[in-house]
Amino acid sequence: MQRRGALFGMPGGSGGRKMAAGDIGELLVPHMPTIRVPRSGDRVYKNECAFSYDSPNSEGGLYVCMNTFLAFGREHVERHFRKTGQSVYMHLKRHVREKVRGASGGALPKRRNSKIFLDLDTDDDLNSDDYEYEDEAKLVIFPDHYEIALPNIEELPALVTIACDAVLSSKSPYRKQDPDTWENELPVSKYANNLTQLDNGVRIPPSGWKCARCDLRENLWLNLTDGSVLCGKWFFDSSGGNGHALEHYRDMGYPLAVKLGTITPDGADVYSFQEEEPVLDPHLAKHLAHFGIDMLHMHGTENGLQDNDIKPRVSEWEVIQESGTKLKPMYGPGYTGLKNLGNSCYLSSVMQAIFSIPEFQRAYVGNLPRIFDYSPLDPTQDFNTQMTKLGHGLLSGQYSKPPVKSELIEQVMKEEHKPQQNGISPRMFKAFVSKSHPEFSSNRQQDAQEFFLHLVNLVERNRIGSENPSDVFRFLVEERIQCCQTRKVRYTERVDYLMQLPVAMEAATNKDELIAYELTRREAEANRRPLPELVRAKIPFSACLQAFSEPENVDDFWSSALQAKSAGVKTSRFASFPEYLVVQIKKFTFGLDWVPKKFDVSIDMPDLLDINHLRARGLQPGEEELPDISPPIVIPDDSKDRLMNQLIDPSDIDESSVMQLAEMGFPLEACRKAVYFTGNMGAEVAFNWIIVHMEEPDFAEPLTMPGYGGAASAGASVFGASGLDNQPPEEIVAIITSMGFQRNQAIQALRATNNNLERALDWIFSHPEFEEDSDFVIEMENNANANIISEAKPEGPRVKDGSGTYELFAFISHMGTSTMSGHYICHIKKEGRWVIYNDHKVCASERPPKDLGYMYFYRRIPS
């Protein structure tokens, strides 16, 4: 073991030699070009290894690269040296010792400890009155492991001294995650103080929102100027929208919008289109009140609870956390907790459930050497590296060890205390996965279900080769829509990752008890007496499953059979069953006064679940399909001009939309064509183009750019010319067919009008007697056949279909009145018994509250 404060030759060999102190400068000369002083904006990691949860508190300490300022534990620093050639590291180590006792047996009086210079969290398990800390820093030069104790002003070059001081005095890169500083990170919008709000009488209801320009009901934003409710950006997992909120800003110039569903007594997510970033609105309560949303009333109800209002929620907290029961702590592999960073329990609960699934364990922890060896130069910004790091931290048992036996404590304390680290802090993981996300990057509580879908999105986008562990959650939903007037039907399929079950309150089996409880509660409130013991509604799981399968009305249904709006009903079934079924109980809603409400119910969730009866059956004998005609689309002149401009330059293709479609399993070239031919109008519109064109023989061919409009080639201007030169541009054909006209009709109209869009539309309306010319059709087929590159049918989304019989292995519970507040914990069944994961505490469960969960995880039972 080398001593501190000295410089040594090569360790462990007879060829090693001691060097004079004056040789320190000479030793550093070859490495001076690689030593940097941290600049403003550099992230200096001195609390946590990039590949593990080692810290200066760990036995081997932490090595900080003096060039990249990344930190590595003893097990991983050699990898960074081999990959980058960076040789100079600062080694940081915190020692914990028992305090020296005075003559009376008590600890000596407290005084300022000048030996502490690292900005670290102290160990919660240690009583600071009994222990003292001493921090140690030294430079280490690889590969020979020469050590130079710090500080060493006299002998070190000035640049090295300045760099070392800057590293030691740097602030944590996670500072903005701290509760007291997060809000200061968001700027106040310059439009908030003088925001114009139209007096148009708009009042926003507490539920039932829908985009004003499409039928989407998720990711909706309320414009604070005119009260328009419009959708945000669309993601492949259906968690977004068509970008209509941004389009509305471009059309009208109204700068601020608030996301519906994020409004809580503490604020909401506000975005400034003009400033292009999330912002703070100091007058948000006033701006929301303009549209009938009373935040102040919400605040008084949710945070200003009276004493007699608290009892039901306390009861819920006690039951879910199994309070009042002496729970046995559990240690070892798979029993590692996650420390709460301040409202990060939603993340912890989801990740505990995720890494209890073998497919995720194999994909990340099973590939640890390969993922770490091939990680980018900054592994803190790589999703797969951080997932592997978190999985290894949870599963290795390295950070979950039982306390030292009592008979050894005194002997250990005589020399140096070596604390056992129990639980890991997911700061680096949270910082990366929440990056650029206005909700998860904040310090507010979030919805575990939304984070689950966000995580699936990240897994999809960062798949490791062909391996994609999120395949185990993916399934296809068959949606059957029936026109109530003509009785004709349409079958479509969509991808989903979880099953959302409504709470069938009307099916409560203890209605008489509920009525009696409500009467007694009101009487107690009126007379200021203690409230009676809470009575929860008992809902049969079968009733919730029945409610899921019931037909639902389709608002604003457009019947292609009637060519008009009509009444329609929709039913959903499973076109495939996933390997792992995630079930969300839809417990949260809003009251008429916009106060968040939670259904405080008990549902008898089964340990064994059979949903085979929900298997989709497709078109049945006797059913007649609705015509495959799209609703008429009215394109305003300005939007038409913008669309045409977007079509001119193929370099403007929205690559994010392309990748979202490609991640669903469609060929890359087909995705590029879909986005191009729909004018960058979003991934969902492009997806519809794919569904319409995926059977065409040239579906997967590379995108080719024919001329169009006034720039069309001469050969295209002559109607009746043969060959490829006479092909109208596909992008204009797509616009016309999206309006409900036949493809051949669109092509003939364009040929007759020199590929002019507006004249082609006039031609179609002036030729209602249009009939397909057989010669025209044959010619088109010959042209298409001559250019076939591949006739292979594209693969759709990958699913792991099988039996619909499952067993419960995990569930996440929520305590509190809203997903934006409260606390989450997770129960997982391991080795035949239930285990409770409550932040960093992991214990054997005695009474798992399976009836009070929010999200349930089922695994398929092999048939």
TrEMBL record:
<dbReference type="GO" id="GO:0005737">
    <property type="term" value="C:cytoplasm"/>
</dbReference>
<dbReference type="GO" id="GO:0036506">
    <property type="term" value="P:maintenance of unfolded protein"/>
</dbReference>
<dbReference type="InterPro" id="IPR050185">
    <property type="entry name" value="Ub_carboxyl-term_hydrolase"/>
</dbReference>
<dbReference type="InterPro" id="IPR013083">
    <property type="entry name" value="Znf_RING/FYVE/PHD"/>
</dbReference>
<dbReference type="InterPro" id="IPR016652">
    <property type="entry name" value="Ubiquitinyl_hydrolase"/>
</dbReference>
<keyword id="KW-0597">Phosphoprotein</keyword>
<dbReference type="Pfam" id="PF00627">
    <property type="entry name" value="UBA"/>
</dbReference>
<dbReference type="GO" id="GO:0010506">
    <property type="term" value="P:regulation of autophagy"/>
</dbReference>
<dbReference type="GO" id="GO:0008270">
    <property type="term" value="F:zinc ion binding"/>
</dbReference>
<dbReference type="InterPro" id="IPR018200">
    <property type="entry name" value="USP_CS"/>
</dbReference>
<dbReference type="GO" id="GO:0044313">
    <property type="term" value="P:protein K6-linked deubiquitination"/>
</dbReference>
<dbReference type="InterPro" id="IPR041432">
    <property type="entry name" value="UBP13_Znf-UBP_var"/>
</dbReference>
<dbReference type="GO" id="GO:0006914">
    <property type="term" value="P:autophagy"/>
</dbReference>
<keyword id="KW-0072">Autophagy</keyword>
<dbReference type="GO" id="GO:0031625">
    <property type="term" value="F:ubiquitin protein ligase binding"/>
</dbReference>
<feature type="binding site">
    <location>
        <position position="244"/>
    </location>
    <ligand>
        <name>Zn(2+)</name>
    </ligand>
</feature>
<comment type="function">
    <text>Deubiquitinating enzyme that removes conjugated ubiquitin from specific proteins to regulate different cellular processes.</text>
</comment>
<feature type="binding site">
    <location>
        <position position="214"/>
    </location>
    <ligand>
        <name>Zn(2+)</name>
    </ligand>
</feature>
<dbReference type="GO" id="GO:0008283">
    <property type="term" value="P:cell population proliferation"/>
</dbReference>
<dbReference type="GO" id="GO:1904288">
    <property type="term" value="F:BAT3 complex binding"/>
</dbReference>
<dbReference type="GO" id="GO:0004197">
    <property type="term" value="F:cysteine-type endopeptidase activity"/>
</dbReference>
<dbReference type="GO" id="GO:0035523">
    <property type="term" value="P:protein K29-linked deubiquitination"/>
</dbReference>
<dbReference type="GO" id="GO:0006355">
    <property type="term" value="P:regulation of DNA-templated transcription"/>
</dbReference>
<dbReference type="GO" id="GO:0070628">
    <property type="term" value="F:proteasome binding"/>
</dbReference>
<dbReference type="GO" id="GO:1990380">
    <property type="term" value="F:K48-linked deubiquitinase activity"/>
</dbReference>
<feature type="domain" description="UBA">
    <location>
        <begin position="652"/>
        <end position="693"/>
    </location>
</feature>
<feature type="binding site">
    <location>
        <position position="211"/>
    </location>
    <ligand>
        <name>Zn(2+)</name>
    </ligand>
</feature>
<feature type="domain" description="USP">
    <location>
        <begin position="336"/>
        <end position="861"/>
    </location>
</feature>
<dbReference type="Pfam" id="PF00443">
    <property type="entry name" value="UCH"/>
</dbReference>
<dbReference type="InterPro" id="IPR028889">
    <property type="entry name" value="USP"/>
</dbReference>
<keyword id="KW-0788">Thiol protease</keyword>
<keyword id="KW-0862">Zinc</keyword>
<dbReference type="InterPro" id="IPR009060">
    <property type="entry name" value="UBA-like_sf"/>
</dbReference>
<dbReference type="GO" id="GO:0051087">
    <property type="term" value="F:protein-folding chaperone binding"/>
</dbReference>
<keyword id="KW-1017">Isopeptide bond</keyword>
<keyword id="KW-0963">Cytoplasm</keyword>
<feature type="binding site">
    <location>
        <position position="231"/>
    </location>
    <ligand>
        <name>Zn(2+)</name>
    </ligand>
</feature>
<dbReference type="GO" id="GO:0004843">
    <property type="term" value="F:cysteine-type deubiquitinase activity"/>
</dbReference>
<comment type="subunit">
    <text>Interacts with UFD1. Interacts (via UBA domains) with SIAH2 (when ubiquitinated). Interacts with BAG6; the interaction is direct and may mediate UBL4A deubiquitination. Interacts (via UBA 2 domain) with AMFR; the interaction is direct. Interacts with UBL4A; may be indirect via BAG6. Interacts with NEDD4.</text>
</comment>
<keyword id="KW-0479">Metal-binding</keyword>
<keyword id="KW-0645">Protease</keyword>
<protein>
    <recommendedName>
        <fullName>Ubiquitin carboxyl-terminal hydrolase</fullName>
        <ecNumber>3.4.19.12</ecNumber>
    </recommendedName>
</protein>
